[in-house]
Amino acid sequence: xxxxxxxxxxxxxxxxxxxxxxxxxxxxxxxxxxxxxxxxxxxxxxxxxxxxxxxxxxxxxxxxxxxxxxxxxxxxxxxxxxxxxxxxxxxxxxxxxxxxxxxxxxxxxxxxxxxxxxxxxxxxxxxxxxxxxxxxxxxxxxxxxxxxxxxxxxxxxxxxxxxxxxxxxxxxxxxxxxxxxxxxxxxxxxxxxxxxxxxxxxxxxxxxxxxxxxxxxxxxxxxxxxxxxxxxxxxxxxxxxxxxxxxxxxxxxxxxxxxxxxxxxxxxxxxxxxxxxxxxxxxxxxxxxxxxxxxxxxxxxxxxxxxxxxxxxxxxxxxxxxxxxxxxxxxxxxxxxxxxxxxxxxxxxxxxxxxxx
Length: 357
Prior knowledge:
This protein has helices at about 5-10, 40-45, 50, 65-75, 85-95, 110-120, 160-170, 225-235, 245-255, 260-280, 305-310, 335-355, and strands at about 25-30, 80-85, 100-105, 125, 145-150, 175-180, 200-205, 220-225, 285, 295, 315, 330. It is α/β, with parallel strands linked by helices.
């Protein structure tokens, strides 16, 4: 850090993104990207005429994309705000609603702590169960902003929309933020329909995972009209042209290409089930997952060592040093071929471990 940095900046531990190595070709299973390409309909919408318009600022209201999202989820355009990825959406929420304190699980998305530190939000970490489950009663009547990733990062476990509703209903005097980055890979856990019933719910969503647009950086918030007004005030005080023209157009056509979306999600769910079965057959302990990744460990080799051995063999997964999950690796669900490469690499590593053990 330079001598000019503030004490606050020096004190912040920034979020560490997953590796994006360029030294060789990897089977890349570390950042929960969708292994299937962006919708062809979306890509083909980027015409020469559109590219020629890039000398003009993008639409700050993102009207065509807002309309498409509102139509898809059966809400009003006034209930939707577009952001530069869901991380920006979360940052807006922490700025708008975090000053009185925030609470969230002790094992979850690492950016929450960063935002809390950046925006001076007092934090309460609530311990997950031994099986990494959320006890919903821990979040009742908190008198502070509740933040829940559902399905949860880094565990993949999910609450039903009914369980989330119990949390929302018990916190009428404070905001409940539900981070739905992985919601499309689960069952019956999307809370967007509940915004018509609750004025304290903020549903944060992304196009990065299920809609294959991680590089497009498109997120969106669905909430009561008054909350969207709050968050728009944050946006227009920070970055009015926050989403570029090309990404908006890609996202609009991606959400309209519902058949492609459902096909890709179905493939990932099927592959996830097969991978869990394979890992179980090798005596791995796998956390139940409703996301496009699984968290798994084996008694034969610790998580950090397994991560390193896989990387040597050209397979990239994610390992976290957090005490509660340091024995695990997190594996993104890729194509069937990528999963076969992963499983074969693991088998070789375990055989070598047995021979040397």
